[in-house]
Design a protein that fits this description.
- By secondary structure, this protein is an alpha+beta fold.
- The relative contact order is 0.07.
- The two termini are 55 Å apart.
- The radius of gyration is 34 Å and the shape is elongated.
- Among the domains are: 60 residues; 79 residues; 66 residues, no CATH class.
- Helix 2 runs antiparallel to helix 3.
- Keywords: Membrane, Transmembrane, Transmembrane helix.
- InterPro entries: ATPase_put (IPR032820), DUF3939 (IPR025071).
Length: 321
């Protein structure tokens, strides 16, 4: 069985897939445009974490990802220990109750035999009632043993987890939170904490409303209040903006989708080959109908897996010896 882990490092997505077998560990790792696959042979007496540590160091896996994997491996070990404890408890119960079950059935059969034999002697119809008494004793013994199994071997229904889940799903009442002043960095940190606790397959874009503004009802508990001003986020790059720049994420999402589609079909970026600033070439996107109109903002293609940015890249200066 394979286990997948995902981390969002700013604009770059980091993915790790692990598969544990008896003799080896399968690892598939991607970070932006970097992709590594390895099969780690388990030929020494080491833990899974120790086998993975070398791969993590060699490929510069983020601390956030390593922390999540270590947490998973620890929980997996505790889970296995729990199963072992449950098995040993079951075994002890089986060994201690085995004798009780045998004695119970023996007593019921013996009592049925004696009662049937007594009635046969009185009514002189041997062995009819004796046989009926024996089979009745077997049935009564079986019912008694079944009742004991249900009482001692059936696990209790877990109710606490369901209760905790129902509590966590309760909607947040923003009237209980004050209006506060926050910085864009405060919002960024709150979004990261929020996304770290999301289930697999659910992304932080659930925070973004139709106008690209952030729904702070979901972040109120992390921020300690509702911000006094709006903040905006790109659904494609996760960049954050203040209200004075709210037009940027709207156009950024349109341009990013157009660039992604162009790359998918043309296998190259829509920019001039010798442009040192890597500006998005709107003419190419308009000509092939990836854009309906030229954006007012100039965007640039970064080295981070083809993500676009509105920030003009700085000129690289050569170091002098």
């Amino acid at each position: 069985m394979k286990h997948k882990f995902t981390k969002y490092l700013g604009r770059v997505t980091e993915n790790l897939e692990l598969g544990f077998e008896e003799k080896w560990i399968y690892v598939h790792y991607t970070k932006g445009s970097i992709e590594k696959t390895a099969c780690l042979l388990k030929n020494e007496v080491k833990s899974n974490e120790e086998y993975l540590e070398g791969f993590f160091t060699e490929n510069h896996v983020s601390e956030e990802m390593k922390k999540e994997v270590r947490k998973f491996l620890k929980n997996e070990k505790n889970h296995n220990d729990t199963h072992w404890n449950e098995f040993t408890t079951f075994l002890m119960k089986a060994l201690s109750l085995n004798m009780v079950f045998g004695i119970t059935i023996a007593i019921c059969v013996y009592a049925g035999y004696k009662l049937g034999a007594l009635l046969d002697t009185r009514f002189d119809i041997y062995p009819t009632l004796t046989l009926i008494g024996i089979f009745t004793g077997i049935g009564l013994g079986g019912v008694t043993v079944y009742s004991m199994v249900q009482k001692y071997f059936t696990s209790p229904t877990p109710k606490r987890k369901d209760k905790e889940q129902s509590i966590n799903m309760e909607p947040v009442d923003i009237r209980n939170f004050p209006v506060i002043d926050v910085t864009i960095e405060d919002v960024r940190m709150a979004i990261r904490k929020f996304s770290d606790n999301l289930p697999k397959g659910v992304y932080r874009t659930i925070l973004v409303q139709d106008d690209n503004s952030i729904d702070f009802k979901q972040l109120a508990s992390l921020l300690g209040g509702i911000p006094s001003k709006n903040f905006f986020m790109s659904k494609e790059t996760y960049d954050l903006f203040e209200e004075s720049e709210k037009q940027i994420p709207l156009e950024m999402d349109i341009v990013q989708k157009a660039v992604d589609q162009y790359v998918k079909e043309h296998k190259e970026y829509p920019m001039l080959k010798f442009d040192p600033q890597h500006r998005v070439n709107y003419y190419q996107l308009l000509q092939d109908h990836y854009l309906k109109g030229a954006p007012e903002i100039q965007f640039y293609i970064t080295d981070l897996d083809g993500l676009v940015t509105h920030i003009k890249p700085q000129k690289k200066t050569s170091s002098q010896s």
